[in-house]
Amino acid sequence: MVPVKSTLRNALVGDGAVASTFRTYFLALVACVLTTAIAAPLSKHLDLANIVMLFLLNVVLVAVRLGRGPAVMASFLSVALFDFFFVPPQLSFAVHDVQYLLTFAVMLTVALITGQLTAGLKRQAELASNKERRTRALYEMARELAGALTIAQVAEISRRFLRDAVDAEATLLVPDRAGQLKPAAPGNGDQPQHIAPQMATLAYENTACTDLDAPRPVGYFPLKAPTRVRGVMAVASPNKDLSLLHEHHELLETVASLVAIAIERLHYVEVANSAQLQMVSERLRSSILSAVSHDLRTPLTALVGLADSLSIAKPPLPAQHRGTAEAIRDQAMRLSGLVGNLLDMARLNAGEVKLRKEWQPLEEVIGSSLKLLEKNLADHPVAVHLPTELPLLEYDAVLIERVFCNLLENAAKYSPPGSPVEISARRLDTAVEIAVCDQGPGIPAGQSPDIFGMFVRGARESAKPGVGLGLAICRAIIEGHGGSISAGNRVEGGARFVFTLPAGNPPTVEAEEPVPGTRHG
Amino acid sequence: MVEVAPKVVVVEDERQIRRFVRTALEDEGCQVYEAETGAQALVEAGARKPDLVILDLGLPDRDGIAVIRDLRSWSDVPVLILSARSNEDDKIGALDAGADDYLTKPFGVGELLARTRALLRRKLRAGDTTTPVVTFGGIRVDLSRRTVHRNDEPVHLTPIEYRLLGVLLSNAGRVLTHRQLLKEVWGPSYVESNHYPRIYVAHLREKLEIDPARPQHILTETGVGYRFQP
Questions:
Q1: For A359, which residue in chain B has the nearest alpha carbon?
Q2: How confident is the prediction along chain A (521 residues), in pLDDT tens digits per residue?
Q3: How far apart are CA A285 and CA A283, in angstroms?
Q4: Do B86 and A509 touch (CB under 8 A)?
């Protein structure tokens, strides 16, 4: 890994560093001087044409080793040195024979062209190998990203890569729960100094941009993943100029998209994990609920039954003991009702109750509720006023029966014996409104909305039994049906609970065809 | 004439519940056999040839509904199931599988005995040829002449209403699920039209009950179905 990175850096930063440029020109100069020194003693034995060849060889070598610029310099220098030291008159730039001017021209042209070609070839080769190294480094980074388990790891991998590759400082900004972009840096949660939030937000809205006002230019790249922008990568240039951001724009964009895909992958891993977790916890909750329900109900059933068998035992118990047995039975029944309410509320809260909605007439559930509460309502005449043409309603009969039972139980509990209870209904535009009224003391002023909260009771220290779950259950059930429930007082005194059920589109009923020839009635 | 004590198998895994059920039934003059598991229940039902099986749906070893199905494959003994409230699906499943009635826990001894008596009566009656005339609460239904009278006034019923009444009467004391009623009265192609029995039951109550909003004979078993009680 390490050698790849250091050579990569050289490859990417290129041969443009000022110090090394100066050195290459100097080396080219030395090479030219050296060529002159070698050629000088040989000039007596060699033709001038061969001396030219030595200089051309020098230019080619300079081009190969030191690049294009030094080669150009070496070309001119070679012509000058050749003229000065070898063309008569020697040690002078003057030329006796005019035809040497042609030699100079050809020599310069050939030197320049070979220098150019050679340096170009070398550069091509370098570029190719740079490209290959860069691809390999990117591949390495992609592989590391694929193994990353947290966003912090992704941030660290991309930071390290860009630091090693282009000496730039990269920061990943990802939105938190509130949608605010926050750095995903490992360890420190502080916003690095050079990040401009407005720029980051702009980039998050999918526009790459560059901040030129910062001490060092900072490029902001949106992390575009297949489904959406997942965050922003801010890259601060190592120096004041923009060249890095321009030169390596493509590389930075590639890194940004790799990071984006890694973050998206992590996002979906998280989604899948939390779905799994939720499923497990839901299953646990529902199994706890049913276990609790079974475990509480079994002893209650035994208690009710055993107390009952005492009170009808043969031979009969003394009246006093029978009364005790009946009281035990009644208390156990009440306890069972409370347990039922608590479990219902837990189920409703857990969202575990699936409504078994069916189209049915309203009067049916009213009838069954009244039958269930026969005992409680023994002291209260109940009047039911339903319009004859009430449509079928779609509701869960068990749950709506619960609503009626809770409301009627309250009415019976809080109104004086003998006072009537009234159930009425009327058709509204898109719903049916059902009211349950009593003639008790009504609801204490200012309490009507929160009376539907859990464990809220009208009169706090009331002697009436109850824990204040009944109305909360009613609200949960009615809201589950898409209706609403409210409480108020009647003008003539007494509480009035009103709830609505959506009317919807009741199914049609095929009209019955009269069958001729059969006798009925 | 010495009456033979009716035999009842009680299937329940909780000892205390079995205990009071047994006491109550023995006081009624029944002979009681106990079983704790579904497997035991089937063995007892096969060996004792009971007149009634009282079955808790929450058995430790197997699903109560499966026990009923098994039992129904070779016996038509009446089955009374015990089940917790808010388990309507279980109740419907058990009734559709062939159970006759259910009791919701917790239940009193009075209720238990009333249901037991009704089912035992059904069992006894099943033998004799049904009387063609049924009367209840001022209503007289003559099944042979297909007439219905209320306080001696003729009542006009549509064919479907009459068929529904007939099914309810012939299953007096039993709970009939919506599905069973649909199948019996409307035919198998209507089993998804659950609103039909509800509408026609409302019609019947209108014509036969004194206070249709508080029916005394055609009773609603909320979320499950209907029961006719003479």
A1: B195
A2: 334 444 444 444 444 445 678 888 999 999 999 999 998 888 888 888 888 888 889 988 888 888 888 888 998 999 898 888 888 888 888 888 888 888 888 888 988 898 888 888 888 888 898 888 888 888 888 898 888 888 888 888 888 888 888 888 888 888 887 778 888 765 554 556 677 777 888 888 877 777 777 777 888 888 888 888 888 888 887 777 777 777 788 888 888 889 999 999 998 988 998 888 888 877 777 777 777 777 888 889 999 999 988 888 778 888 888 889 989 988 898 888 888 888 888 778 777 677 888 899 998 999 999 988 888 899 999 999 989 888 899 999 989 999 999 999 989 988 899 999 999 999 998 999 999 999 988 887 766 667 777 666 555 545 555 557 888 889 889 988 999 999 888 888 889 999 999 988 888 777 775 544 444 43
A3: 5
A4: no
CA atoms of A309 and B17, how far apart (whole Å): 11
- β-pairing, B52-56 vs B175-177, is unpaired
CB contact under 8 A, B106 and A304: yes
How would you classify residue A520: left for phi > 0, otherwise alpha for psi between -120 and 50, otherwise beta? beta
- Reported as type and span, the H/E element at residue A311 is helix A249-311
Question: Which residues in B lie closer than 8 A to residue A384 (C-beta atoms)?
Answer: 213
Comparing alpha-carbon positions, the chain A residue that sits nearest to B25 is: A309
Burial class (CB in 10 A: 0-12, 13-18, 19+), A241: exposed
What ipTM goes with this model? 0.87
Amino acid (1-letter code) at residue B79: V
CA distance A213 to A232: 19
Record: contact B196-A344, CB cut-off 8 A: no
d(C-alpha A162, C-alpha A165), whole Å = 5
Cross-chain Cβ contact A294/B58 below 8 Å: yes
Residue A2 belongs to what H/E stretch?
Answer: helix A2-13
Could you give the CA distance from residue A116 to residue A62 in angstroms, rounded to a whole number? Answer: 11
Angle at A88 between CA A86 and CA A94, to 5 degrees: 105
Using omega within 30 degrees of 0 as the cis cutoff, is the peptide bond preceding B132 cis?
no
Write the burial class of residue A7 (CB in 10 Å: 0-12 exposed, 13-18 middle, 19+ buried): middle
A363/B212 Cβ within 8 A: yes
CB-nearest to B223 from A297, A356, A367 is A356
Give the global pTM: 0.63
**Mind telling me how many Å the CA of B72 is from chain A's nearest CA?**
27
- Cα–Cα distance measured from residue A276 to residue A270, given in angstroms and rounded to the nearest whole number: 10
Q: Are A268 and A226 in contact (CB under 8 A)?
A: no
Provide the shortest C-alpha distance from residue B178 to chain A (in Å). Answer: 11
Q: Do B158 and A397 touch (CB under 8 A)?
A: no
CA distance linking residue B226 with residue B220, whole number of Å: 5
**Residue range B31-69, pLDDT digits in tens:** 999 999 999 999 999 998 999 999 998 888 888 899 999
Give CA–CA dist B80/B21, Å, rounded.
Answer: 12
The CB density around residue B127, as the number of other CB atoms within 10 Å, is: 6
- Test mutation, B18, B103, B214, B221, chain A, max A CBs within 10 A: B214
Give per-residue pLDDT as tens, A72-131. Answer: 899 899 989 888 888 888 888 888 888 888 888 888 898 889 888 888 888 888 889 888
Burial class (CB in 10 A: 0-12, 13-18, 19+), B130: exposed
Determine, for residues B223 and A294 on separate chains, whether the beta-carbon distance falls below 8 Å.
no
